[in-house]
Write a structure and sequence with these properties.
Largest sheet: 7 strands, mixed
Radius of gyration: 30 Å
Low-confidence stretches: 1-19, 22-62, 160-171, 282-286
Mean pLDDT: 75
Number of strands: 20
Number of helices: 11
Length: 450
């Protein structure tokens, strides 16, 4: 529907088609890939994952689905210092890095013969050759700036945590007390707040999933995680469509602690990634619906940075033009001041997270046309600076000025003679105004209408 609307806009106005549509096409090639091509990707399982089986809560028509289906592995005491086992939290990104190194770092690629790589159904004191599930066949790269690890810490209530309690006692059956999510990235721009609450991946095509379960009961030793990756419209295309709208409309003994996870081939960018966690009573529990949800599904926004975006310009300085007319067959002129909004394209010297840009650290190029029936009569080229939501622009506005070539004010002439003598020239003017994001204006309008 949105694609059809964009095509309609480009067809209906030749000047908009000449100006904005090629910019969008070039920008999509230089920036994020368009999901219209990624959505054609096969739903077959990528390397490092297994095909997902149907389960409750799945998104409708996901672009790509993968799943981890395994018995949890032992988490050694040395790794517990990186967790707050009472609250089920990871205190910091530094602790998260150590936790990743102690688990995925040891058991991915070429797994070590150690207890951390052994299923909790085995003996941790006498480890055998570790299993090699396909989702841990790829070694991690924890120092790579493009490395993302999605972490889920599940804390079970202390109930039936006896390893030999089979079948579990329903009167003491443990339930999920908390399920907390984190996104780890080693980059300098990824803050502690991003780690704990910014559920985003910046246009990643691959990621890792790590889940740690505390106080694991007997019926929770087998975990099933399903990942749905759904392609979506790039945010800059949404902004262009929005711009078009403005132009046209408890256990006895020590609790068991286990972990699991591995590599996820995301493929579709930009996309929304939704992760569902389940604990199975038995290996084929989903077939009989005997499962325990591990909290609510978690959705992550996977969209990177762009070098361009679309916005709305509101001039502070009015546009001045001279208007020529004939009164009593005499040429007359008068000054006319106009003020209209502009459709703008913002070009950034470095890629910008247009969803959460904050303060633009560098001035950027702003170019655009007036949103009316004759957009090429006013052409703007300026520099933008200031906060992302409402920054300022200052530059040059070329205004098309229709002037007589030989006739002057006061001379006698008919309307036909004046029209034949008119010449079209562009006159530069200083332009200053406010640059508003399309998303911000649209959201403010929605709130005002409520």
């Amino acid at each position: 529907m949105k694609k059809a609307k964009l095509i309609h806009v480009c067809r209906c106005n030749v000047t908009l088609a000449i100006t904005f549509c090629p910019i969008l096409s070039i920008g999509l090639l230089l920036g994020q890939q368009s999901p219209t091509t990624n959505n054609k990707r096969s739903a077959s399982a990528p390397k490092g994952s297994t095909p997902a089986t149907p389960n409750p809560g799945t998104n409708a028509n996901p672009t790509l689905s993968t799943a981890f289906d395994e018995t949890l592995n032992w988490l050694p005491d040395s790794a517990l210092s990186n967790l707050d086992t009472d609250t089920g939290e990871v205190p910091s990104s530094t602790k998260a890095a150590a936790l990743i190194a102690a688990t995925l770092g040891k058991c991915s690629g070429t797994p070590e013969k150690t207890s951390v790589c052994q299923p909790i159904s085995g003996d941790p004191d006498t480890p055998n050759d570790p299993p090699k599930p396909p989702w841990r066949s790829t070694a991690i790269e924890p120092t790579n700036k493009d490395f993302y690890c999605i972490i889920n810490i599940v804390r079970w209530s202390v109930g039936d945590a006896k390893p030999n309690a089979t079948p579990p006692d329903s009167s003491k059956k443990a339930t999920v007390a908390s399920s907390k999510w984190y996104v780890y990235n080693p980059g300098k721009g990824w803050s502690s707040q991003d780690f704990t609450s910014n559920y985003r991946l910046m246009g990643a095509k691959r990621a890792w999933l790590l889940y740690v379960h505390l106080n694991v009961p007997a019926h929770g030793q087998h975990a099933f995680y399903k990942i749905d990756v759904t392609g979506k419209t790039p945010i800059v295309l949404q902004d262009l469509l929005g711009l078009a709208n403005y132009a046209y409309g408890g256990a006895a003994g020590k609790p068991t602690i286990g972990w699991g996870g591995g590599f996820v081939d995301i493929g579709s960018v930009p996309s929304d990634i939704t992760i569902f966690g389940f604990s199975e009573y038995e290996e084929k529990a989903l077939a009989s619906n005997t499962f325990q949800k591990l909290g609510d599904p978690q959705t992550l926004d996977n969209e990177g940075k762009y070098r361009f975006d679309f916005s709305i310009g509101v001039p502070i300085k009015q546009i001045s033009q001279l208007k020529f007319d004939t009164t009593a067959n005499t040429v007359t002129s008068q000054k006319v001041d106009k003020q209209n909004i502009f459709g703008l394209v913002d070009f950034f010297p470095v890629p910008v997270d247009v969803k959460n840009a904050g303060l633009y650290r560098f001035p950027h190029v702003v170019a655009g046309l007036k949103l009316n029936s004759q957009p090429l009569h006013n052409i703007l080229l300026a520099a933008g600076f200031g906060p992302a939501f409402a920054n300022f622009y200052a530059g040059i506005l070329w205004v098309r000025q229709d002037k007589p070539g030989t006739l002057t004010p006061g001379q006698t002439a008919t309307a036909a003679q004046l029209a034949a003598d008119m010449q079209h020239k562009y006159q530069p003017q200083f332009a200053f105004g406010i640059n508003l994001t399309v998303r911000g204006v649209t959201n403010a309008a929605k709130k005002a209408s409520k």
